[in-house]
């Protein structure tokens, strides 16, 4: 660990300057943790799924300094009053918790293994959950600072202009449109080229195509630009219940959905489906939950297959699909969004959360980085995705058992023996 005042060195430029520079779903999940499992502990780890142009291990000292700086920050009263207090689903005790909160440097370590950068957060979940998006933003920006900035920004602006022209061209042809409107959102905080480019891009979209661009997952930009902040839950919320020990493993998804329903009472009603595959999710997503939640979010597997399964499920439950929404958020660009929209938007509302292709499309190869929850209360937790490369577990025995109790074919796990699970699945 670097000296806690290392960020005061000449030339230090912080990546994160506000703790509000984070995605909404981190805060919504955080409040649930504070209320329902404040004593739970966990471990999260940083992973890079692709091969960078140069080793991320070279960033170790810079990452250490940025984390020192991050742990010196706190939420301002203006942020608490201007953002959190304006949203009724955030409770007063959570606002008071945030007013007191600071990241604790002792809960996060930076290491290297060969060319790999290893970042591990370990401690109470209510203290470590917030590291995720900040760590990803820090690594991304530090990495891309190594490339010519003006050249990348010029290319990013050129590509953004093309995207805006494509949107206007698509909407200008009535044959492209469906019963429900085409809407998309910025979901790109975690993999952005830089904080400054992120802000410029979101402001440009809000100004140029407000009829299509409906908000951002980034809370700071939502506050500064007076945009809707979007997001509900991520995999972390559902995975957490695999390790809490308060329900049998088979009922972890139901417990997660019930906890969310009780906490938010109808707000924030988009449920994530791919922690243990869409098929297993739908077996738990009964009439009670299907009526309570406003819709579903896709994050892995074939979106067309997934969407048809969702529509069939609503039809089976005799629910009017026009009152629901399908949100797609897996590796999207506009062409992909248009195809999905045209397939489903006559039957159900749709929305598209676009990440890397918006915030890091500047002519350089993007990093595919994540920070995964791997342990809760000392128990392995896992993700059995609809796309093998997104599945993950530290313990293959647990992965087999999780598949078994949820009625998922786990025969593919056998080929992972002796390998790093995520690397083997991605390969």
Task: Describe what you observe in this structure.
It is a single chain. With 427 residues, the protein is an alpha/beta fold. The protein is 42% helix and 13% strand. The protein is built from 18 helices and eleven strands. It has a six-stranded parallel sheet. β2 and β3 form a beta hairpin. α7 runs parallel beside α8 and α10 packs across α11. The longest helix has 23 residues. The protein is globular, with a radius of gyration of 21 Å. The two termini are 33 Å apart. The C terminus is likely disordered.
Q: What characteristic shape results from the CA principal axes?
A: globular
Q: Can you write the helix and strand succession as a string?
A: HEHHHEEHHHEHEHHHEHHEHEHEHEEHH
Q: What integer is the average pLDDT?
A: 94
How far apart the termini lie comes to: 33 Å
Tally of DSSP β-strands: 11
Q: pLDDT under 50 segments (min length 5)?
A: 418-427
Computed structural class: alpha/beta
Output the number of helix runs. Answer: 18
Helix content: 40-55%
Strand order of the largest sheet: 5-4-9-8-7-6
């Amino acid at each position: 660990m670097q000296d806690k005042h290392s960020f005061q060195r000449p030339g230090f430029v912080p990546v994160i300057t506000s703790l509000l520079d984070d995605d909404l779903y981190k805060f919504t999940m955080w409040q649930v943790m504070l209320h329902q499992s404040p004593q739970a502990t966990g471990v999260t780890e940083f992973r890079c799924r692709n091969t960078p142009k140069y080793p991320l291990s070279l960033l170790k000292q810079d990452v250490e300094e940025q984390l020192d700086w991050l742990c010196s920050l706190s939420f301002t009263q203006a942020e608490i009053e201007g953002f959190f207090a304006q949203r009724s689903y955030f409770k007063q005790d959570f606002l008071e918790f945030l007013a007191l909160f600071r990241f604790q440097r002792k809960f996060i370590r930076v290491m290297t293994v060969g060319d790999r950068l290893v970042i591990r957060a370990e401690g109470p979940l209510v203290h470590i959950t917030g590291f995720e998006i900040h760590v990803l933003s820090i690594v991304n920006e530090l990495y891309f600072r190594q490339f010519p900035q003006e050249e990348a920004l010029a290319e990013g602006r050129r590509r953004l202009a093309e995207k805006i022209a494509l949107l206007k061209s698509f909407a200008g042809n009535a044959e492209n449109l469906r019963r429900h409107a085409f809407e998309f959102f910025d979901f790109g905080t975690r993999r952005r080229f830089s904080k400054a480019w992120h802000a410029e891009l979101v402001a440009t979209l809000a100004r140029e195509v407000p009829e299509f661009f409906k908000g951002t997952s980034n809370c700071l930009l939502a506050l500064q630009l007076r945009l809707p902040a979007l997001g509900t839950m991520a995999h972390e919320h559902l995975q957490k219940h695999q390790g809490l020990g308060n329900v049998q493993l088979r009922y972890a998804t139901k417990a997660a959905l019930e906890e969310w329903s009780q906490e938010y009472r109808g707000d924030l009603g988009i449920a994530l489906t791919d922690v243990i595959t869409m098929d297993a999710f739908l077996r738990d997503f009964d009439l009670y939950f299907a009526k309570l939640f406003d819709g579903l979010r896709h994050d892995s597997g074939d979106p067309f297959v997934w969407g048809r399964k969702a529509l069939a499920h609503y039809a089976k439950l005799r629910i009017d699909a026009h009152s629901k929404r399908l949100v797609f958020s897996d590796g999207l660009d506009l062409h992909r969004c248009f195809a999905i929209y045209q397939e489903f938007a006559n039957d159900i509302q749709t929305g598209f959360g676009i990440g890397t292709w918006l915030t890091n499309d500047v002519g350089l190869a993007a990093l595919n980085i994540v920070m995964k929850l791997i342990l809760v209360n000392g128990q392995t937790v896992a993700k059995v995705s609809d796309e093998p490369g997104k599945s993950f577990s530290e313990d293959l025995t647990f992965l087999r058992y999780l598949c078994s109790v949820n009625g998922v074919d786990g025969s593919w796990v056998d080929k992972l023996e002796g390998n790093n699970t995520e690397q083997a699945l991605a390969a």
